[in-house]
Amino acid sequence: MQEIEVKYRLHELTALEAALAQRDVTLSAPVHQDDQAYAQSGWSYGQSKIGVTFARLRTQEGRHLFTVKTPLANEMACLEHESQVADRDQMHEAIKQMGFRPTVRIVKIRRTAYLDGIALCVDQVEQAGLFLELETVAAATESGTAAQARLDGFARSLGVELHRVNDTYDSLIRQALSPA
């Protein structure tokens, strides 16, 4: 399966909450997510991510999730596999031993809602800002860009000010931390 995402800078949370309320959708209570991103040895920022496998280790509410993603059509249309792990520190060392290196730490507060097979995630990302991320799952044979177009149409139907971004959170944080 593919995880398909689109991401937007969110300018006014109250406008989004009102638009969602009109559809009887309420965002969840906030949860803290602490993600460590990893890249394969030999890959560096500025190179294409298409076809390259990346790893992530997430801690949320005392649970640790290990995820690998391989971007297909673009950075936000990925083959994805995820599993819970018992020990974050041991998994961190295992990921490094598999040939990945830590890149960026992504710390965020996330609120979620679900509507018609779409996960709506409002993320306050340290060092990057406030975002709306829409996610869905598609068959491996489906066009990721077509699924993204459907998600974008849904986002635009909300009628709130959004600015679409094509970078993943690790790239956005890296840009924010880079000297101008």
Descriptors for this entry?
CYTH_domain, alpha+beta, Hypothetical Protein Pfu-838710-001, 23% helix, 180 residues, globular, 8-stranded antiparallel β-barrel, 4 helices
Written description of the protein model:
With 180 residues, the chain is α+β, with helices and mostly antiparallel strands. The chain has four helices and nine strands; from the N terminus they run E-H-E-E-E-E-H-E-E-E-H-E-H. The longest helix is centred in the last third of the chain and has 14 residues. The chain is globular and about 50 Å long. The model has no long low-confidence stretch (mean pLDDT 95).
Give a topology summary.
Blueprint: E1 2-10, H1 13-21, E2 31-40, E3 54-60, E4 63-71, E5 77-85, H2 88-97, E6 100-115, E7 118-125, E8 129-138, H3 144-157, E9 162-165, H4 169-177
Antiparallel strand pairs: 1-5, 1-8, 1-9, 2-3, 2-6, 3-4, 4-5, 6-7, 7-8
Order the strands across the largest sheet as they lie in space.
Answer: 1-5-4-3-2-6-7-8
Report helical residue fraction: 10-25%
Please provide the count of β strands: 9
The topology string of helices and strands comes to: EHEEEEHEEEHEH
* Tally of helical segments: 4
Contiguous uncertain segments of 5+ residues: none
Rg calc: 16 Å
Number of domains: 1
Q: So what's the overall shape?
A: globular
CA distance, first residue to last residue: 38 Å
Taking the sheet with the most strands, its summary is: 8 strands, antiparallel, barrel
